[in-house]
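Students often ask why inverse folding is considered easier than folding. One informal answer: many sequences map to the same fold, so there is more than one right answer. In these notes we will look at a single instance of the problem. The structure comes first.
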């Protein structure tokens, strides 16, 4: 009986361990523990999920502006018909491969905005161009496309909603304070389960230590530290890396000796925060109730939305070079329509539409 209990105890301890072989990649001075640890079995699963799909054939240069041929082109008025059609085909494959064009468009009149998905897609196109043009400090020249997040899904597989308000217990244990149960966000730990609302929607300080000596400067409480650790655990899991990917083990808080990835992550946090506030929250009222979270908020992005378990989305392979249409908002190919009674009536254009 004693041997059986011993074996069960050992098995319980090993449940949280990964069996060998484990690969270690050193990226700091020897003896500093600056190394990344990878499970080859996990990498084997992730690799095919992070393959870039074949690019759609390039459009023939030139041709009329899409906004002169199709109705209700509000964002992509800087594309030719060929570029526009190519991007629409690609977006269908990236976001709605099963539903096709009618996921966003009314089959009887593509120009209509009667489907919420089309209104959202228009906003997401603006957001994608914003990332690629204004957030190079995080995405560099690699950039992003719709596929970076969607990967063939209508809704990206990794989004978040605000946590449902806790029903405070009247028992001796009191409330959970938003934590103290296993949380997948915090990689199975009991750390706070919604570090995104304060840090990736709000702008609370992401800090463990105070910046000055006690008693006036060090105001980070243990509870605040737990929220920071929850976000850091999420980031580590989302990128499939150790803490040492961004931090120096000699002094985790010191910027001067941190790897350059920490600066990239700093910009990434602010990028995601801006995107959630500028592009997602403003369209909450566009979504039907079944697309909203338990508190009625819209789905928002975090690090996992793009990275999906790897240090760079799709291991750093750029799709943007094949889809320059998503790089930035270029000048419109058409001049504003003159205010003239002889101007062409909208109904005379082709009854198809765009974003």
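Output (designed amino acids):
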């Amino acid at each position: 009986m004693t041997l059986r209990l011993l074996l069960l105890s050992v098995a319980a301890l090993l449940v949280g361990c990964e069996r060998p072989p484990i690969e270690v990649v050193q990226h700091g001075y020897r003896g500093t523990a600056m190394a990344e640890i990878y499970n080859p079995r996990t990498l084997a699963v992730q690799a095919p999920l992070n393959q870039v799909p074949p690019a759609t054939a390039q459009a023939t240069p030139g041709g009329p502006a899409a906004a002169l041929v199709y109705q209700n082109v509000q964002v992509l008025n800087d594309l030719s018909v060929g570029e526009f059609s190519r991007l629409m085909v690609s977006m269908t494959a990236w976001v709605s491969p099963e539903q096709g064009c009618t996921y966003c468009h009314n089959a009887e009149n593509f120009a209509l905005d009667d489907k919420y998905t089309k209104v959202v897609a228009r906003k997401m196109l603006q957001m994608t161009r914003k990332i690629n043009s204004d957030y190079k400090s995080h995405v560099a020249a690699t950039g992003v496309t719709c596929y970076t997040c969607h990967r063939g899904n209508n809704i990206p597989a990794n989004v978040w909603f605000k946590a449902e308000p806790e029903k405070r217990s009247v028992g001796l244990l009191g409330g959970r304070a938003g934590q103290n149960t296993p949380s997948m966000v915090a990689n199975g730990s009991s750390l706070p389960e919604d570090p995104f609302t304060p840090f990736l929607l709000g702008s609370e300080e992401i800090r463990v230590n105070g910046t000055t000596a006690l008693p006036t400067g060090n105001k980070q409480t243990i509870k605040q530290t737990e929220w920071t650790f929850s976000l850091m655990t999420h980031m580590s899991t989302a990128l499939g890396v150790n803490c040492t990917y961004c931090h120096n083990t000699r002094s985790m808080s010191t910027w001067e000796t941190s790897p350059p990835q920490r600066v990239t992550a700093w910009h990434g946090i602010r990028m995601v925060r801006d995107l959630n506030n500028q592009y997602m929250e403003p369209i909450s009222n566009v979504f039907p109730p079944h697309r909203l979270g338990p508190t009625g908020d819209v789905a928002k992005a975090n690090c996992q939305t793009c990275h999906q378990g790897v240090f760079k989305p799709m291991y750093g392979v750029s799709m943007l070079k094949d889809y320059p249409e998503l790089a930035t908002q270029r000048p419109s190919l058409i001049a504003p329509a003159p205010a003239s009674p002889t101007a062409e009536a909208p109904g005379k254009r082709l009854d198809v539409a765009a974003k």
